[in-house]
Amino acid sequence: MHRIAVIGNYVPRQCGIATFTTDLCESLASEFPQLTCFAAAVNDRDEGYEYPPRVQFQIDEKDPASYRRGADFLNFNKLDLVCLQHEFGIFGGPDGSHILWLLRDLRTPVVTTLHTVPCRPSSTQQKVLGEIVDRSDRVVVMTQKGTELLGELYRVSPAKIDLIPHGIPDVPFNDPNSYKGKFGVQGKSVLLSFGLLGRSKGVETVIQALPEIIERFPEVVFLVVGATHPNVVRQEGESYRLSLQALARELGVDANVIFHNRFVNLDELTEFLSAADIYVTPYLNQDQITSGTLAYALGAGKAVISTPYWHAEELLSDGSGILVPFAAPDALAHAVMHLLEDEDERNAIRRQAYLASRKMTWPVVARQYIASFQRACRTRLASPRSRLAANWDEMPPLGLDHLRRLTDDVGMLQHAVASVPNYSEGYTTDDNARALLLTVTLEELGDRWMARTSGLAYRYLAFLWHAYNPQNGHFRNFMSYDRRWLEECGSKDSHARALWALGAVLGRSRQEGLRQAAGRLFDLALPAARDFTDLRSAAFTLFGLHDFLRRFPGDHAAQEISTLLGTRLEAAFQQHASPEWPWFEGQLTYANAALPHALLLCGRSLGRSPMIATALQSLDWLLTVQTSSRGHFAPVGNQGFYVQGGVPARFDQQPIEVQITIAACIEAYRVTGKYRWRRHARRIFQWFLGRNDADLALYDSVTGGCGDGLSPEGPSINQGAESALAFLQALVELRLLEGTPDGDGRASSAALRKQQGDACPEYSQ
User: Fold this and answer.
1) Cross-strand partners of 162
2) Which structural domain, as residue segments, surrounds residue 127?
3) Is the pLDDT of residue 742 over 50?
4) What is the distance between the alpha carbons of residues 622 and 644, in angstroms, rounded to a whole number?
5) CB burial class (10 A; 0-12, 13-18, 19+) of residue 411?
6) Is residue 161 in some structural domain?
């Protein structure tokens, strides 16, 4: 794990979530220096805050578009995980529903910390929290009660929940008397409550208990530390604080109550806690599932008296404090007096609280969060969760905007940054050959498409002519943007792809000018193919020869090379295949389906039934290997491939692998007439639309491009030539298969009869 982001409020915003988010980020960064951890902060005011550098994105609480931009920003940063801090009140929309705009677009695994789990949720709260939990890979709660509520009310499996305590600073166990002088309360017995002030805090209960306490212990002072909560100030100003001050005057204890009306930082808070003899949390609501202030008090080794809200019941159950009823001043007074009278018991409670809280210190909690993050990533990898609703049976429109965007007056550019052409990466023969092949395939959709792509076809063919090096009879592959060739001889694959495209022009194009130019170049480049021993280079060449020989069946040199290369493929299968591994090599790497596809074409043209049977057997096995447990296509990834006896690499999955497999299935359908091959082709195409291991579309309906690959974090944001061409080639081939040049999704009965009539009778049963 290398990069994570935490979403929540952040200091200097003054609230408990801001403090928690800040402490979590800083602890993760401190405990794991190799980890890049940044925050996306939620703003509750237009001017925002003067955030520290760790905050790299700001979300406007009330603006839904800001949440969508946040998702785009997080996706762009290629994160391993996002950790969301959730409290209904910090996000905009009904019950904080705006955060769903971000989660719905997020591609990374998500771990959500729930700071509130309502036991009596409104219908909106139930829906919002339910979707948040559903879209999270793991959920963190800070109490066992939280786990129970999630199971009972929200049907969340315990296996999805991590119980991690509220983090606390690791402070020493101090003598309160050493710190009292700093606040002018030396010689006093100090009661303390702190945190943002609001009516649910129950501070009036302590003030109401003071007359009885002071009668026996007149030196007692009650410190109320913390500013009024900003939301309370906006709604009612300081009316609650003023009512507390009035109550203290009315009861004659105003001299014993000291208000520190300000938000204190961690260092100040530690000093206030250190000066306290007894910490009091007199909250009025049992449903308080998390209290950071209580956790801090235990971590400082304070003797705690609290009402029995859920978090307090759990934290104090082992003797770390005393519980008193809600809104019961008498009971509170008796508990305070008991602890002031019995110093031994007070100190015993302090020690128990301090020892029990060591498992809550931030270094320990940070390690627990990392463990949760790792579980989330493993879960996403093993069982990707659906985040895309799609009509799988509906093919997208055929658009060439991105194709044109990547094409300049030289040819097809190789790469893109997002959807913007990347000039610094220049051009390749590989991609210009693929682009030329696409234009030939588009011709078959009709005159309208031929007219739209004719100029592009000439440009791509011109590039191939320029790439050919007559000095050595081979194609160069890489050209820089300033039109300098970076090599004198390219790879065998690039040479074979050029032959493939040239053969397609000669065998299928209706444009005489293209065919004449392609013919001369094909004759010059074909002899080099005799020496191709690499199986993929042989397969790509066979594709071109198949198209060429359909128009020129009497070309003996082409027939000889086709037979030679087909025989090499068949021999490779015989040498390596076994019942458990019916394949041409000892591993699956790239463009795998090209091998059975090429053998299928050879077997058909040569009339060799055993060759056809071998091709279908190996393609069938390949589909089995590359089908996930959920039934979608999952091509072998290029991060390790699949070595015989090993485990298939899951990522990075490549669009070219999808297209090459679709083409093989279409040919298997044409040869056999078996409809299952056609179904396979459609199912595999759905990988582009989101039926894949990440449940996210690689096809971009806005740009017309396609992501360059599928990683554990989701689709690549870059839309280079190879991926765009793979998507378009697959889409056009499927349209031709189904007789739908205009993409209406319905094949004509005549087209189906024609396709089935092309089948080999021997394999059509």
Assistant:
1) 140
2) 3-167+365-382
3) no
4) 13
5) buried
6) yes
**Of 299 and 739, the one with more pLDDT:** 299
**Which residues are within 8 A (CB) of 175 and not within 5 positions of it... i.e. 6 or more apart?**
none
Q: CA-to-CA distance for 330 and 327, rounded, in angstroms? A: 9
> Measuring CA to CA, how many Å separate 261 from each of 199, 242, 244, 513?
15, 11, 12, 85
Confidence at residue 757, expressed as pLDDT on a 0 to 100 scale: 37
State the CATH number of the domain containing residue 641.
1.50.10.10
8 A C-beta contact, residue 611 and residue 598: no
Burial state string for 69-87 with b = 16 or more CB within 10 A and e = fewer than 16? bbbebbbebebbbbbbbbb
Closest by CA to 614, choosing from 670, 679, 622, is 622
Q: Is residue 388 part of a domain?
A: no
Segments of 9-80 assigned E as strands: 36-43, 55-60
- Pick from 388, 284, 288, 267: nearest CA to 329: 284
Question: 455 lies in a domain?
Answer: yes
- Measured in whole angstroms, the distance separating CA 733 from the mean position of its chain's CA atoms is 31
The H or E element that residue 260 is part of is: strand 257-260
The answer on 210 and 133 residing in a single domain is no
Mean of the per-residue pLDDT values for the chain?
91
Considering the domain architecture, whether residues 19 and 57 belong to the same structural domain is answered as yes
pLDDT at 610 over 50: yes
| Banded model confidence at residue 590, pLDDT cuts 50, 70, 90 | very high
Q: 158 with 222, same domain?
A: no
Residue 230 has pLDDT above 90, yes or no: no
d(CA 187, CA 651): 67
pTM for this model (two decimals) = 0.56
> Using CA atoms, how far apart are residues 411 and 430, in angstroms rounded to an integer?
11
User: What CATH number corresponds to the domain at position 318?
Assistant: 3.40.50.2000
User: Could you tell me how many residues make up the chain?
Assistant: 765
The answer on 250 and 160 residing in a single domain is no
Q: Give the DSSP letter string of 86-104.
A: E-GGGSSSGGGTTHHHHHH
Confidence grade of residue 749 (pLDDT, cut at 50, 70, 90): very low
Kindly report the number of other CB atoms within 10 A of residue 300's CB atom.
Answer: 26
161 sits in which H/E element: strand 161-163
Number of domains comprising the chain? 3
Q: State pLDDT tens for residues 618-634.
A: 999 999 999 998 899 99
- What's the rounded Cα separation, in Å, for the pair 438 and 706? 15
Q: Write the CB contacts of 361 (distance below 8 Å, at least 6 apart in sequence).
A: 167, 168, 169, 170, 299
pLDDT at res. 312: 92
Q: Kindly report the backbone phi and psi dihedral angles of residue 578, in degrees, each rounded to the nearest multiple of 5, phi listed first.
A: -145, 165
Same domain membership, residue 704 and residue 680: yes
- Among 122-126, 429-433, 738-742, the range scoring the smallest mean pLDDT is 738-742
Chain centroid offset of residue 119 CA: 31
**Domain final residue, candidates 348, 382, 416:** 382
For residue 433, pLDDT beyond 70: yes
Residue 251 Cα to chain centre, angstroms? 58
Best CA proximity match to 506, nearest among 452, 457, 545: 545
Give the N- to C-terminal CA distance of the chain in Å, as an integer: 51
Write down the residue that tokens 């913007």 correspond to.
420
What angle in degrees, to the nearest 10, is found between the helix axes of 203-216 and 329-341?
50
**Distance from C-alpha of 178 to C-alpha of 545, rounded to nearest angstrom:** 91
Tell me, yes or no, whether 501 and 568 share the same domain. Answer: yes
- Is residue 575 located within the same domain as residue 644? yes
Asked whether residue 394 is assigned to any structural domain, the reply reads: no
Judge if 97 and 184 occupy the same domain.
no
Kindly state the tokens that stand for 344: 């031994």
Interacting residues of 147 by C-beta distance below 8 A, sequence separation 6+: 141, 158, 161, 163
Average pLDDT over residues 303-315: 93
Residue type, 498: A
User: Please, which pLDDT band fits residue 740 given cuts at 50, 70 and 90?
Assistant: low
